[in-house]
Fold:
Amino acid sequence: MDYARARSNMVENQLRPNRIDDRRLLDAMLAVPRESFVPKALAGVAYSDEDLRLPDGQSLIEPLVLARLIQSAAVDDQDVVLVVGCATGYAAAVLARLAATVILLVPDDASTAKVEPLLDDLGADNVVVISSDDPTAGHPSQAPFDVILLTGSVDAVPAALLEQIGEGGRLLAVVEGERVGRGMLFTRVHGVIGRRTLFDAQIPRLAGAKRVTAFAF
Structure:
């Protein structure tokens, strides 16, 4: 299979027609080999426009939803980004080409041992991989963050993650609703958290996320 052509088709047929126009983001998604982040048996469908369920119970969310979330985050090359829920490392590899530093939370040491060499091979040396069995806790010792990205849906954004948004920072997540989830942007301005609904989306639930109480506005 010609994976370079598959990446180009993903950008031209899935992303651009849906108003993904950030040149840096498109270049990053053209450069990162999505097929490297899934088992060989699934490499042929790595660029399909749907979520991929992986044998280990994890998932790789569809390219368009990921691109919409990242584009909405307006990532700057000075930003420090926290990625929650991407056990494959793909989202971190894309963001590594956009941000200064990316901290990736993975569920266990086995995931760390698998993801770190892959990121190293891709030259993503600005990604720090950290094992955490509770993704909803974030990584408070390195907070605050300029951007926090959740790559799995939640019923409500955990208060602990909202507290780790820096001044002027952004958190992107798909929040589950009764019928459909919604991509949402949370921002901190003058110490106050605001939120905005961006688009409808349905992605797999954030692995390891506990049911939480919604943040009170």
In short: The longest helix spans residues 3-15.
